[in-house]
Amino acid sequence: MTSSSNKVIVVGAGVIGASCAYYLRKSGREVTLIDQGSFGSGCSHGNCGYICPSHVLPLATPGALWNTLKTLFARNSPLSVKWRLEPAMWRWFWQFAKKCNQKDMLQSGIAIQALLNSSRTIYDDLLSTIFDDVEWEPLGLLFIFKSLHGMEHYSQVDQLLRNEFNLGATRYDGNALLEFEPALKEGIAGGWHYETDGTLNPVRLMESWRKILEQHGVEIREHCKLLDIVTNKRIADSLKTNQGEFVADQIVIATGAWTPQLYHLLKKTIPIQPGKGYSITMPRPVICPKVSMIFEEHRVAVTPFASTYRIGSTMEFAGYDKSLNPDRLQLLRDGASLYLREPQAEPILETWYGWRPMTPDSLPFIGAMPAFDNVFLAAGHGMLGVSMSPATGRLIAELVSGQTPHIDPKPYAVGRYL
């Protein structure tokens, strides 16, 4: 049994857990980071690497429920739901439906933006001080529309973002878009460029995080599965794992989409659903985009890393299904081929899936667990884990240490869903 000396155990070695471990260590804690798998091997591995302050709007927007229902019956829809006799899933969609209104959308957007903007500022510092080569490209992000209807509809979103969030994009129509990004095909209606955004390689990011944590004295235990939390009333005294028992003064749970499966240990049901995303990684094509882009009407994203090239996205609510669905991968290929002159290259280096931890209001859970005095949760970041991770780690360290939070933690409270 490991002795306790102002010690924090962080459970979950993805990008959120790594950031939490770093800022807890900076605050003077002795930190052990454990994971049931390998460091950085979950959803932190195969994502598109966007750092995107542009993504302030939640998924639950006015009309989103009806649009979601329509896509479910469409062939080859980027959104897929495998309906199951699972009360937690139906409860999640009911909670999502209740959030599909203007007031809740704006309220969630304000809280999302606080995390995104804080993280973007922190990333600037990390990139200039401690990170090795993570293939950072501060070139912005393009939202591409094939149809004029889609382009004009998004102009309303752009106006909303300008008015409510002081966030605007540069509009490029037709030939102007092709001049800006020659890798696109002719005949595309246009796009919107968010200069605030950037991309990095998530694999390189996690490699850099591991090196930094080890240099700062954080102990990393891989293939260390959490089995039980030993409690004394409202105090969690230790964690039982398959590698022994660890005493801790504080515990941080950063287990992403796996969090709902810990409800019996955390003494609370956490409304997170695993939203399965896919990606394909390959060498950079000869005609390679210079700017990362999202094809909004087909929900396909492309990232030209310095070393490789990745097509990703789609959303599949299929529980904890571990299959690599070839039809979903084909959707990525087909979507990219509609927009790009050279949509892919050979050989395929990796086909991948990961479970995004989706919450009904698109806000993560960051804060104390209601049943404990010394257990904290940092999970539920949806598709924005990489983008939100630095601010999340800093906020967790502030809450654990009793410091004044640098952003208001109330919107992310664990107890906001009864």
Q: How do the helices and strands line up, and which of them pair or pack?
A:
Elements: E1 7-11, H1 15-26, E2 30-34, E3 50-51, H2 64-72, E4 79-81, H3 87-98, H4 102-129, E5 141-145, H5 148-165, E6 170-173, H6 175-180, E7 190-194, E8 198-199, H7 202-215, E9 219-221, E10 226-232, E11 235-241, E12 244-247, E13 250-253, H8 263-266, E14 273-282, E15 292-295, E16 300-303, E17 309-317, H9 326-337, E18 350-358, E19 365-368, E20 375-379, H10 385-401
Helix pairs in contact: 1-7, 1-10, 4-10
Describe the largest sheet. 9 strands, mixed
Low-confidence stretches: none
How many β-strand runs?
Answer: 20
Q: Which range best describes the helical content: under 10%, 10-25%, 25-40%, 40-55%, 55-70% or over 70%?
A: 25-40%
Strand content bin: 15-25%
Secondary-structure-based class equals: alpha/beta
- What is the string of helix and strand elements? EHEEHEHHEHEHEEHEEEEEHEEEEHEEEH
Q: How many H/I helices?
A: 10
Question: What is the global morphology?
Answer: globular
Determine Rg (CA atoms, Å): 21 Å
Distance between the termini: 36 Å
Kindly report the average pLDDT value: 94
Please characterize this protein's 3D structure.
The protein has 418 residues and is an alpha/beta fold. The chain has helices spanning 15-26, 64-72, 87-98, 102-129, 148-165, 175-180, 202-215, 263-266, 326-337, 385-401, and strands at 7-11, 30-34, 50-51, 79-81, 141-145, 170-173, 190-194, 198-199, 219-221, 226-232, 235-241, 244-247, 250-253, 273-282, 292-295, 300-303, 309-317, 350-358, 365-368, 375-379. Strands 4, 5, 6, 7, 14, 15, 16, 17 and 18 form a 9-stranded mixed β-sheet that branches. The model has no long low-confidence stretch (mean pLDDT 94).
